[in-house]
Predict the 3D structure of the following.
Amino acid sequence: MLWIAQRASAAVLAICVTVHLATIIYAVQGGLGAAEILARTRGNSGWLAFYTVFVLAVAVHAPIGLRSICIEWLGWRGRSRDVVLALFAALLAWMGMRAAIGVFA
Amino acid sequence: MKVFVKRDSGFQEFEVPRHPSQTVLDVVTYIQRELDPALAYRYACRVGMCGSCAMTVNGVPRWTCRTHVDKVVRDDALEIAPLKNLPVIRDLVTDMREFFDKWARAKGQFAGERTRRDDFHKVKPSSSDRVQVDSNIECIGCGVCYAACDVVAWNPDYLGPAALNRAWTLAKDERDSLKAERLRAVAGDAGCHSCHTHMSCTERCPKHLSPTAGIAGLKREITKAVVRGKF
C-alpha cells in the first residue's frame, strides 16, 4: 500500500511541480513583487485547492522515500522509525498548509 | 599474467601463463592444479549450463567458464574473488544457502492442483502469460544477479532478483494455484517493492535475462490484486 501511495503521489507531484514551475517562469517575466503575488493568490480558492493537493502529495511522498533510506542507509526499522516519519509527514503538511493558507487569507 | 586471488588471508598473487581461448576458469584450475592445491573453488559443467563457477572477476560477477581472459584482462592482470553478498566458505567458494532459502521465502515452489491421475495441463506457448515469462524461466540460479544487486547489499532481508524472478514465472504460470499467497510473500520491504530498478541484475545476467522486468511485473500484479481486493 505504501508503494502504491508513493507512486500515486509521485504522479500528482509530476503535474503539480510542472504547473508550479511553469507559473513561476510565466509570472516573473517583467518582475514580480510580494504584493503582486498576494494580489493573485488572496481569496483565490483555485490556487488554494491546487497548493493543498501539492502539499498533501509531498507529505505522503517524502516520508515513504525516507523510510527506504532509513532501512538501506541506517538499518533503522520498527516503531521508532515509523513514529518519527509520521511526525515528519505531519510537519511537512503543517508547514505547507501554513504557507498555502498564508497567501490565501 | 599476474592473477590476484582472494584467499581467506587476503589477495594472493600468482603468475599464470596465457593461452589462446583461455577462460578465467582455466586460470583458476591451473592455479589449483599446478601452483596451490589448497585453493578452494567450485565448478561442474565448464560449459555455461550449471552456473556453479560464478565468481567476481575484476570486480564484476561472471561465470568464469564463459569468460575469456582476453575479454577481461587489464594490464596483464586479473583479480578473482568470490561472489559478493554471500558468506564465503573458503577462498572462492560461497555459501549459497541463504540465496536459495530466499527462493523458498518467495514461495518459489510450484503448487499444482492436478494429480498423477489427471490429464496433462496443456499451456499454449502463444498465451499472453506464457509469452511474458518466456525468457525468465531460463534462470539456472547461478547467483550472479544476487551478487550484482545493490539492494541486497543494503538490505540483507531483500529476496533478491533471482528469487523474485522465480516468483514472477510462477505468478504467470496458469497451472499454479498459489497466486495471492505468493504475491503477499514477495511484497513489501523484503520483496519487489524494495527494488530500485538499477538493473544491475539485468546488466550482469550471463543468460541475458531481465529479472528487473519480472520484478516490475510482480509490482503490477500486486497493484492489480490490491485494486481487485484479492491481496
Summary: Chain B touches chain A at residues 151, 154-155, 187, 189, 193-194, 219, 223, 226 (CB under 8 Å).
